[in-house]
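pinned: reference chain
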Amino acid sequence: MNLLIACVCISEILSVAAIMFFPALLPSFQAEWGLTNTQAGWISGIYFGGYAATVPILVSLTDRVDPRKIYLLSAGLGAVSMIGFGLLAQGIWTATVFRLLAGISFSGTYMPGVKALSDRISGAKQSRAISFYTASIGIGTASSVFLAGSLTRYFGWRWAAILMGLGPIAGVVLFALAVRPNTPQTPDQAARASFLDFRPALQNRSAIGYMLGYAAHCWELFGFRSWMVAFMFFSLSLQPQINFKMSPQSLVTLILLAGVPASILGNEGALHWGRRRFITICMLISGLIGCVIGFAGGLIFIMVAGLCFAYWIAIMTDSGSLTAGLVFAAKTEETGRTMALYSFVGLSMGFLAPLAVGAVLDIAGSGTVGWGVAFATLGLVAMSGAVWLKLFRGNNEE
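pinned: its structure tokens
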């Protein structure tokens, strides 16, 4: 059982090679292609737009089809998107196409991977397995930033994209070997009629609370993560006399990796102190940091890096708890559709948030005030998640 969890987590780490490729190199692409902040935010966000557009179908299918099949095909698409980006991307529209395909790939691996685990693991181990799996996305994200920066430094960004396309291929092989196919089941007439019928999920008050909380969480998470490297470059530009030996990409890699244990330990804290209570506290703390961090860009760079570290830890502490709570709240026969709606709502915010940050920077300027206002919009929305969790809860939830 532990081997299964480990293999599925490693497969997902390999399969999300594309997730931070563009944001990690965003300042370079802006200079090479002459992109505005809004255009750069569009390319960053369209990844999650592709996710949101297809996740209702792909994840709902996991109630009818073995999620293993969906996962393998989607991870293969991830390899195509990365190699295609390296070979053919020339500017905003070609980049948009390949980032869109990469987002579709993510929609067919992330939640179907959760479903594959929940189908094969039950009892007390299920929540921890989902927490570890969710945290593995953090490792994949950090690896994506690091590899994008390191490989580009030696081979250029085109070859970096092509080489990173090998990750999803390896993920396909590992997942195929580790996850045995489920016995095919023919859905009955009621199950066929319920495909893409999200009304039962919308009647689940507890699940709705986690969906809206996840939306606020994703707005903050993806908005900050997509622009973190660029914010680091901005802060360093204000202090040209500082000879900081670590590249912003390497520093962001370390920050993102710190989110992995934060997510795992956060789920343990939620189990101990009460899931909704714990998530609410985390959202309020991260939201407050978000409201001030952008205005601190002119501080000594090591202080800016420390604030980014603290902000990311605060964001990630409730990440696994939200997903585990949703799975627990969903009815067994509706898990796939409930997860599909949860993903759609959350990752729609993942599409809009990077675009919104870029638009604010274009309107307010790319100075300290502009960054402050842009990140404050992330923090304010994040704090609203605490309100949704309070308003929508089951009768027996703390």
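why pinned: The mean pLDDT is 86. The longest helix spans residues 205-237.
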